[in-house]
Amino acid sequence: MNPTHTGTTRTGARTRPGVEVSASDRPRLAPHVRLTFCRTRQRQILLNPETVVVLNDTGADILALCDGRHTVAQIVTELGTRYQTVPDDEVRQYLTRLVARRWVELDDG
Fold this sequence. Notes:
It holds the Pfam family PqqD. By secondary structure, the chain is an alpha+beta fold. The protein contains 3 helices and 5 strands.
């Protein structure tokens, strides 16, 4: 995924293309984005205006925890209980790409 948008989307929330997400950030889905289950595909999908993103299980699990309450560190810990190994840097890189696309917003931890 390449960064396509920059800027702040609303007070208290920020997007930071090109900057890694920190462990204390609290990610949440942007207001125009929705995580839902697609019966036809039998997969979780991310709905954006004019875009549908079919997610793999790990991506869906990460986004399900992006509720503005969990920190990135807590998300990594929770995923560690579900999977054997969860590389912290890969989760942060994934979230960084979603922030750059303005699909996820960050609140300071």
